[in-house]
Every structure is written in C-alpha cells, then in structure tokens.
Specification:
Structural class: mainly alpha
Number of helices: 3
Helix content: 40-55%
Number of domains: 1
Largest sheet: none
CATH architecture: Orthogonal Bundle
CATH class: Mainly Alpha
Strand content: under 5%
Low-confidence stretches: none
Mean pLDDT: 94
Number of strands: 0
CATH superfamily: ACP-like
Oligomer: single chain
Radius of gyration: 11 Å
Length: about 80
C-alpha cells in the first residue's frame, strides 16, 4: 500500500472498528450498515487530522467508499 492508502486505512480502522484489515479496501457506504451521515462526518474529521488538512466537506461529497476517498486524497495531494 502507498502512503495515502495506509493512512486512510488507519482512519477507517478508527471509525469502523468492526472492519477487519482485509475488509477496509472494499469498504463503502453501500456495504457497511454503520456508514451513515454521522459516520461520514466522523470519517472526514479523522481524515483531516491524519492528513493534517482542512477538510472541505463539499469536495468529498459523493466519496462514499475507501477507493473514492483515496482517489480524492490523491487528487488533493497532487494539487498541493
């Protein structure tokens, strides 16, 4: 795993402690019943702390899977 996915996996493990490490890369709002709007806000807050960035919630709208969040984070880091 690269740095983005490693850090993001740590965030998922904190917000969704029931997930096993091998389940994290395929996690999404569609397959996790505990991923609701509160979990989304918590996840984005944890991501902001882990990646040391201010989260623009609108920029992450629609990012409801590990893969889509990783892609947005890569895009943001490429612009920085």
């Amino acid at each position: 795993m690269n740095n983005v996915t490693e850090k993001l996996a740590k965030c998922f493990a904190l917000v969704f402690p029931s997930l096993k490490p091998d389940q994290i890369p395929s996690a999404s709002a569609e397959n996790l019943s505990e991923w609701d709007s509160i979990a989304q806000v918590n996840l984005l807050s944890v991501i902001g702390e882990e990646f040391d960035m201010d989260i623009d919630f609108e920029e992450f709208e629609g990012a409801t899977s590990f893969a889509s969040l990783a892609e947005r984070l890569r895009e943001i880091s490429a612009r920085a």
